[in-house]
Amino acid sequence: ERLRREAAEETERLRTEAAERIRTLQQQAETEADRLRTEAAADASASRAEGEALAVRLRSEAAAEAERLKTEAQDT
Hints:
There is one protein chain. This protein is an all-alpha fold and about 80 residues long. The chain is built from one helix and no strands. The chain has one helix at about 1-75. The model has no long low-confidence stretch (mean pLDDT about 95).
């Protein structure tokens, strides 16, 4: 009887430890997921800003080239 009780207590202790470990791992996973979401949002924002800057530059270059071609056509 004593051995059965000790085994049951040990089993319960191990179950409790496992449950605590699972909760800890879930919290760590949620924290990491939040960090990754924040990082992804920052990356997306940076990419969007880079894309917008590139679009502005390309529009400026296209306008300058169009003006150059217009001037060249008028000169000929």
